[in-house]
Amino acid sequence: MRRLFLLVSRALKNNEPVLLVGETGCGKTTVCQMLANVAGCELFTVNAHRNTETADIVGSQRPMRNRSTLEKQLRERVLLTALGTSKPEGCSMTTTMLLEKFQETFKSNTSPLSAEIDSLRSKYLSLFQWDDGPLVSAMKNRPILSHRRNIIGGRFCARTNK
User: Fold this and answer.
1) How far is residue 16's CA from residue 52's CA, in Å, rounded to a whole number?
2) For a disulfide at 59, which of 50, 70, 78, 133, Cβ 3.0-4.6 Å?
3) Domain limits of the chain?
4) Is the pTM of this model over 0.70?
5) Tell me: the pLDDT tens digits for 28-75?
6) How many whole angstroms separate alpha carbon 82 and alpha carbon 158?
7) What is the DSSP string of 61-76?
8) Mind listing the pLDDT tens digit for each residue in 105-146?
């Protein structure tokens, strides 16, 4: 395992891609864990199987979560701006009605609060949001990525190699 560690670390120092292939228990994951520990990087391990899809690794569009929290924040910001109050209990208007009133009243307002409301509004109105998979997260944070491909189907391997 020492030889494997040295070979992989040299390859990484030279920005060479590394593919570790071997029998179960030969130290592939352990070497990745040791290299991540030495480098001070987070290690993402993906346990792939024959039903693993590209979206499980790369990421995908997922239904919007925490919509009620977004709506509450949006209502508070709009009420604070439009009505001068941040108490949503006192307002019987729907969120859609509040947004329309805000748009009519503050069409050309470029304040930071107005920009925040526009951002919250676009998030609130969207049905889906992008959720990064482990590969995209690893590429953003630049850690070592350990990827178990031993029983993945050929279709997935073909897509990830494009």
Assistant:
1) 26
2) 133
3) 2-60+133-160, 65-126
4) no
5) 889 989 998 888 887 877 777 788 888 888 899 989 888 888 888 887
6) 54
7) EEE---HHHHHHHHHH
8) 766 666 777 777 778 888 888 889 899 988 888 778 765 555
How would you classify the pairing of strands 145-148 and 59-63?
Answer: unpaired
Burial annotation 16-50 (CB, 10 A radius, 16+ → b, else e): eeeebeeeeeebbeebbebbbeeeeeebbebebee
The structure tokens listed for 148 are: 């178990």
Sign of the torsion angle spanned by Cα atoms 56, 61, 63, 69: positive
Query: Are the C-beta atoms of residues 59 and 133 closer than 8 Å to each other?
Result: yes
Pick from 56, 161, 87, 73: which is nearest to 121 by CA?
73
State mean pLDDT over 83-89. Answer: 57
Distance set, CA 140 to CA 38, 48, 52, 77 (Å): 20, 21, 22, 32
- Report d(CA 75, CA 99) in Å as an integer: 8
Q: How big is the chain by its Cα radius of gyration, in Å?
A: 24
pLDDT of residue 46: 77
Q: Answer whether 101's CB lies under 8 Å from 93's CB.
A: yes
